[in-house]
Amino acid sequence: MLWFLSVHIITLFVWTASVLYIPALIAMETQKQKEFMQHPTGMGSVARLVFTHIASPFAVVSIIAGTLTFVVADILIFWLLVKLTLVSLMVVFHACLALLITRFERENTKNLVLYSWILFTALSVCIVAILCVVLMKPAEPEMLPWTL
């Protein structure tokens, strides 16, 4: 279990760093005149390269390792369900990054800087919320109509 947890934490750091880097990169590059627009290998933008070769693979490994950590230990508690809900929201924001990259590559820059910073802020809040839930491990509120 400790092995899965270690892999989960390491890949989570890389995933969160890369998903925070991409909107900032797009916002900065949108304001410039096509500098760094094309990657030298012809793969598209640098944002797409980071998204497809770093953020997405590390996201998959992080989610699998995190899931295995709790499946192997047979843990099902309230804070874990809250964390998984927040991780699901982060996955949705991760998918929104793909839309942002596509819009950037098609040079549809109307409001792109605004969307980039909104997504950056949403991802940041989600990451901080996940970190708070994991560190505080809140107990199940008594007002919930179900029990775990």
UniProtKB/TrEMBL annotation:
The pathway that the record names for this protein is: Porphyrin-containing compound metabolism; protoporphyrin-IX biosynthesis; protoporphyrin-IX from protoporphyrinogen-IX: step 1/1
Q: What is its EC class?
A: oxidoreductase
Q: Which cofactor does it need?
A: heme b
Segments crossing the lipid bilayer: 6-28, 49-71, 77-100, 112-136
Reactions the enzyme catalyzes? protoporphyrinogen IX + 3 A = protoporphyrin IX + 3 AH2
Q: Where in the cell is it found?
A: Cell membrane
Q: How does it sit in the membrane?
A: Multi-pass membrane protein
Q: How many and how are cofactors bound here?
A: Binds 1 heme b (iron(II)-protoporphyrin IX) group per subunit.
List its EC numbers: 1.3.99.-
Function (record text): Catalyzes the oxidation of protoporphyrinogen IX to protoporphyrin IX.
Q: Which PANTHER family match?
A: PROTOPORPHYRINOGEN IX OXIDASE, UPF0093 MEMBRANE PROTEIN SLR1790
Q: What is this protein called?
A: Protoporphyrinogen IX oxidase
Which organism does this sequence originate in? Alteromonas ponticola
